[in-house]
Design a protein that fits this description.
CATH topology of the largest domain in chain B: Rossmann fold
Order of helices and strands of chain A: HHHHHHHEEHHHHHHH
Strand order of the largest sheet of chain B: 6-9-10-3-11-12
Distance between the termini of chain B: 59 Å
Shape of chain A: globular
Radius of gyration of chain B: 24 Å
Largest sheet of chain B: 6 strands, mixed
Number of domains of chain B: 2
Largest sheet of chain A: 2 strands, antiparallel
Strand content of chain A: under 5%
Mean pLDDT of chain B: 86
Strand content of chain B: 25-35%
Number of strands of chain A: 2
Oligomer: heterodimer
CATH architecture of the largest domain in chain B: 3-Layer(aba) Sandwich
Structural class of chain B: alpha/beta
Number of helices of chain A: 14
Shape of chain B: globular
CATH class of the largest domain in chain B: Alpha Beta
Radius of gyration of chain A: 20 Å
Helix content of chain A: over 70%
């Protein structure tokens, strides 16, 4: 036993430090790089605020995906749920319903769609990948059907507040993001439910035999993901001041990418909300910085993919060295 | 004396602050089985890792058949003629036996194309040499544990090594399977090869080995030929003191108040089974491996659905639990057989693993009362004599015995009325084993009804107050444990209890 204890304490050294803080260091280096390349444009407060505002909706959607991925499951449907919930809210508002009830119905829709995912995966035993892939396809179809494939315009002016206005210097969308992240952090790290989610992610069979209702916990994580996707869809609809049936589509891969990036930060190999936020910010800074530097949009995608692989590879390499 | 096939000298390995191996030597004769025993942490695994090229020793001289060899990595070890069969076997579940045996070899081809029938012939050839019969076509996931172990060994044998290191290959096996495995091991040695056999099971070592080396605290403390030693000797050498029988037979004051009873419980091909357990009593579910013992435990804990029958808890008749969560609510807690796959989330911390069944109790208006929970976990940890550097360390870093104590800590925290134990000391070293027996007796003394399944005869004969015998899933009778001996016990396992 003694030998293992010493091995453990030895890994507390440089490698472990890099594994926990490496992604954050990479992020800071990225900020420094763009600041050096374009000192006139990149490091300005207005630009930085712009970046956060750009990624706020993605961060909101990623919060739910983080919760799902903590249990070891996966959610490909967030983009489709966000789109459909944005469409639902817009349709109701255009139909004359008040803003608040329309938002409430949209959130309920998100919860219901998440519940469908949860039923399929946690109770019917469909694999998360296939279950949410199928769900994504159906939800996208629904959005297109409801809108006839066109963008919904004519939203009430007051609805601009969520995505376009600021409270003092802080955009409302960022405030919503902060609230969602805080709530997710509290659920994951300060509740019995959060402990259950992490335990299920660690070993589902063991958690089940220890008396945890694993199906219910996984189901609820999907419901939460549905709700945060709905919030993201609503804020996005306000920002664009219109609802496109596929507006949320980029969330599907970006949210998963952000959570994966986040797993390389702060806690080794585990989903965590601040890691996901860092992942979202890295993607936002990359896209903004590359734009300012003048890199071709298509090449930006190539670089983003490369950076994702690099981050995972570097943390993986550190792990291999340990043995 | 012949020239040894493997001769290791002055093997030393130091980790910061710990000397894991201290000038150890090991001498293996050709055509023999060499048993390696010692408690966890005695240095056996560091020895094997050093020879396998996984860790780099500070100093090691290695001779194979009199020739000096350097081992810097796994490829060197293979070239030197060393093969390793790990406890986890490392089989590919969806590959069949033939494909698994040939893993890492060049695949047989005909005109450049992979030739399946050639592969089958070659593997059949290997199986014939070892005189084992294993279906070649089925994915290994459908094979019995004994056959899986044999596939792993055959794979090593196909590499034509000189010395085979086997780490606990017989853990999950029935007596019958074990006999086959031992025959296979002997056949390997009859080809002039040697086997180094690592296990906690001293009976197996004594039956199988010609030589036995005992390790303690990084040193080889003794080496015997198997014929001149016995179990007591070995234990003395392993723990460095006279053994008091680890599972000493201590009979307690018995309560006559029934706490838990099963009435005709059946499901999963087992039952109907009927028994009762009084407050503070330890009931042994007796039977051979494969008799349905473990299934019965899963039925009682809600992990496998019950088809018929009722339970009685504290004189109240209730429907059997439909899930472990429901069982927990009724006061029934299970410590499952496979602690690594069914018991623990290995990457998570000791704290998180221990609190898992008691999260509800520390729920304060939605938030988890971390300070209360941590205090309770520390108390439970000291009650089960858990040794860990920190409760934040991941359980993966603990020894087998301490991992098992984490599960006992979890059970203690859950405050069960009924505690179900499936193989509670599997893969646990002698010292920790004794402490676990103390914990079990302590829980019973505090009124918990304990139901235990164990393949360790000594353990179950000493712990249980009463037995229910199960054979092929059927209840074949109940008997008080009036100092049954192993023979009587085994006879009952085969024949059942007759009440004339």
């Amino acid at each position: 036993m003694n030998e293992r204890v010493t091995v453990e304490s030895r890994t507390l050294s440089a490698q472990r430090f890099l594994r926990v803080w490496g992604t954050l260091i990479g992020f800071v280096l990225l900020l420094a790089l763009f600041s050096v390349l374009r000192p006139d444009a990149f490091p300005r407060i207005s630009n930085l605020r712009n970046i956060v505002e750009q990624v706020a909706t993605l961060a909101i959607a990623s919060a739910g995906v983080t919760m799902v991925m903590v249990t070891g499951d996966f959610d490909l449907s967030v983009g489709a749920v966000a789109s459909l919930c944005g469409v639902v809210a817009a349709k109701f508002m255009v139909g004359g319903m008040g803003i608040a009830p329309a938002i409430a119905l949209s959130l309920l829709t998100g919860a219901a769609l998440g519940a469908v995912n949860g039923l399929l995966i946690a109770y019917a035993g469909v694999s998360p990948f296939i279950g949410t892939l199928a769900a994504m396809t159906s939800y996208t179809g629904l959005s297109l059907f409801v809108t006839g494939g066109t963008t919904v315009f004519g939203l009430p002016e007051a609805f601009r507040i969520l995505g376009q206005e600021s409270l003092g210097p802080v955009p409302i969308s960022i405030i919503v993001m902060v609230i969602i992240i805080a709530v997710t952090y509290i659920i994951l790290d300060y509740t019995a439910f959060g402990q259950k989610l992490y335990a299920i992610g660690g070993n589902r069979t063991a958690s089940f035999l220890a008396g945890i209702n694993t199906s219910r916990a996984r189901f609820l994580a999907y419901v939460y993901s549905g709700i945060t996707a709905a919030v993201a869809g609503i804020v996005l609809t306000s920002r664009l001041f219109s609802a496109h049936p596929q507006a949320g589509a980029p969330f599907m891969l970006n949210a998963a990418a952000a959570v994966f990036l986040g797993m390389t930060a702060f806690r080794e190999g585990q989903g965590n909300i601040f890691g996901s936020l860092l992942g979202v910010l890295i993607m936002g800074v990359l896209s903004n910085g590359l734009n300012i530097v003048g890199v071709n949009t298509y090449i930006q995608s190539v670089l983003t993919g490369g950076i994702l692989v690099l981050a995972v590879l570097l943390s993986g390499l550190a792990q291999r060295k340990e043995n | 004396m012949q020239e040894p096939i493997l001769h290791v000298k002055t093997l030393t390995k130091t980790y910061p602050g710990v000397r894991a191996l201290d000038g150890v030597s090991l001498c293996v004769q050709p055509g023999t089985v060499h048993g390696l025993v010692g408690e966890n942490g005695a240095g056996k695994s560091t020895l094997i890792k050093s020879l396998a090229g996984v860790v780099k020793p500070d100093e090691m001289v290695l001779e194979m058949k009199g020739r000096r060899r350097e081992i810097r990595n796994a490829a060197d070890a293979r070239k030197a003629g060393l093969a390793f069969i790990h406890q986890e076997l490392n089989l590919i579940e969806y590959f069949n036996a033939a494909e698994n045996v040939f893993l890492g070899h060049e695949m047989p081809t005909t005109m450049g194309l992979y030739d399946r029938s050639k592969l089958k012939r070659k593997v059949q050839d290997i199986f014939d040499q070892l005189e084992v019969s294993i279906p070649l076509e089925d994915p290994v996931r459908y094979l019995a544990p004994g056959q899986r172990a044999m596939v792993a060994i055959a794979r090593a044998f196909a590499h034509e090594a000189d010395v085979y290191f086997m780490d606990e290959p017989a853990t999950a096996l029935t007596q019958e399977e074990k006999r086959h495995l031992f025959a296979m091991v002997r056949r390997i040695t009859s080809h002039g090869k040697s086997v180094v056999y690592v296990t906690h099971n001293l009976d197996d070592v004594l039956v199988l080995s010609q030589d036995i080396s005992v390790f303690r605290e990084g040193k080889k403390v003794s080496q015997w030929t198997a014929s001149e030693t016995d179990k007591k000797h070995l234990i003395t050498a392993m723990i460095g003191e006279e053994p008091e029988s680890a599972a000493e037979n201590i009979r307690r004051e018995k309560s006559e108040t029934e706490l838990f009873a099963a009435e005709g419980i059946s499901g999963g091909g087992v039952g109907p089974v009927t028994f009762r357990v009084n407050e503070g009593e330890i009931l042994g579910i007796a039977g051979l491996v494969g008799s349905g013992r473990s299934t019965l435990m899963k039925l009682l804990s809600g992990a496998v659905p019950v088809e018929t029958g009722r339970l009685r808890i504290e004189a109240r008749t209730v429907n059997p639990p439909r899930s472990p969560a429901e069982a927990l609510g009724m006061g029934i807690t299970l410590i499952p057989e496979e602690r690594r796959t069914e018991g623990l989330a290995l990457q998570r911390s000791v704290f998180e693993n221990a609190i898992l069944s008691s999260l509800g109790r520390f729920n304060r208006a939605g938030l988890l009362d971390f300070s209360g929970a941590k205090k309770a976990v520390r108390e439970a940890g000291s009650r089960v004599k858990l040794k860990t550097v920190s409760y934040e360390a991941s359980v993966r870093t603990l020894s087998g015995g301490n991992q098992q104590k984490v599960l006992f800590g979890r059970a203690v925290l859950a405050r069960p009325k009924v505690l179900l134990l499936d193989e509670p000391t599997k893969g646990v070293d002698v010292g920790a084993r004794k402490e676990i027996y103390d914990v079990i007796r302590d829980l019973a003394a505090n009124g918990v009804a304990v139901v235990i399944v164990s393949s360790d005869f000594e353990e179950i004969l000493n712990l249980a107050d009463r037995f229910v015998f199960i054979r092929d899933g059927a209840d074949i009778g109940t008997i008080e444990n009036n100092n049954l001996n192993q023979n009587q016990y085994l006879t009952l396992c085969y024949q059942g209890v007759s009440h004339e």
